[in-house]
Amino acid sequence: MRRLRLGVAGLGRAFMLMLPTLAHHRRVAVTASCDPRPEARARFVQDFGGTAHESFDALCADPAIDAIYLATPHQFHAAQAIAAARAGKHVLCEKPMAVTLEECAATVAAAREAGTQLLIGHSHSHDGPVLHARRLIASGRFGRLRMITALNCTD
């Protein structure tokens, strides 16, 4: 079985929350990263081996990865997802996908043009409570839907 060779952009909180899932998935190998902080890059190499790049461009150019997980600040998501797609890398992007609708459209267009996959995470649409709420709404039992407030807490 071939494993998806994943590069991680941004070694902060979002990556740390995803780390258990990524590290234990039998079809994913975390093999490269990039982060502006030298101490984060050194820790990545210590923990995972592989390569820790100083720049996002270097991560995109790394032939040892198939996909990039974007765990960077929101304002960088669109430009980085577009650059990754143009480099032939699939993208798993933390939410939000971008900060404007125009950036979202450009990101989708870049992935389509490159023939790469673009996935925005994390999604709770298949979680039990969300599916139950969907069934309740669809039943019409409570009338027309006017608003939903959903809270998801960590830590």
- Strand ordering within the main sheet: 3-2-1-4-5-6
Tell me the number of helical segments per DSSP (H or I, 4 or more residues long): 6
Q: How far apart lie the N and C ends? A: 35 Å
Which percent range describes the beta-strand content?
15-25%
Question: For the report, how would you describe the main beta sheet?
Answer: 6 strands, parallel
Low-confidence residue ranges: none
Class by SSE composition: alpha/beta
Q: Please state the CA-atom Rg, rounded to the nearest Å.
A: 18 Å
Beta strands, count: 6
Query: Could you report the average pLDDT, rounded to the nearest whole number?
Result: 92
Helix content: 40-55%
Describe this structure as you would to a colleague:
The protein is built from six helices and six strands. It has helices at 13-24, 38-48, 56-61, 77-86, 101-114, 128-139; strands at residues 4-9, 28-34, 51-53, 67-70, 90-94, 118-121. The chain is α/β, with parallel strands linked by helices and 155 residues long. Helix 4 packs parallel to helix 5 (101-114). Strand 2 (28-34), helix 2 (38-48) and strand 3 form a beta-alpha-beta unit. The protein has a six-stranded parallel sheet, with helices on both faces. The longest helix has 14 residues, at 101-114. 42% of the residues lie in helices and 19% in strands. The chain is globular and about 55 Å long.
